Amino acid sequence: MSDTNSPQDWNTLAERVACHVENYLSGLEAVARGEGGTHTIPLLLLEVSQVILAGAQLGASADVILPDNWEPEIGDDPDLDHVRQGLAERLVTVDEYVEVFDPYKDTEPTSYRLSDDLVDVASDLVHGLRHYQQDRPLEALWWWQYSYFNHWGNHAGAALRALHAVIAGARLDVVQESVAVQ
């Protein structure tokens, strides 16, 4: 996108991001309810990858600036603890992992939980979605972009790496075992 985004450009981007957000939220809730079965990790990898695409679009866009430089009040965001708990139950064997939060500034790994990361992302996204659903696409974009750089982008990236490691480890272990058997 160019540095001079028109209202139509912003509306188009907001619509695209809102679609990614809605898909992420519904996918996360389905997995938390146990609908992923044996495909829980691959489904989460897909959901996180797609929402990171939305983040990349926000990151590649010009800064979203609110005309009055303030965010209208939208009330309390929904409580997502039931989603966090459902994910923790499904991810029990892989929920905890370590990550270097900022590869340019941090030198020590930090402990994380996939269930926390996935719901932290959801919390930021649902806040922006509420603006979007109240027909305020610019406020939604501002929030999504700001929180992408400030919070959910890091958590989504860390979760993506952890999910990838679980899947890659399982697939590569299977390949090594089958080669050794031959």
UniProtKB/TrEMBL annotation:
InterPro entries xrefs: DUF5063, DUF5063_sf
Name of this chain's protein: DUF5063 domain-containing protein
Species per Swiss-Prot/TrEMBL record: Actinomadura namibiensis
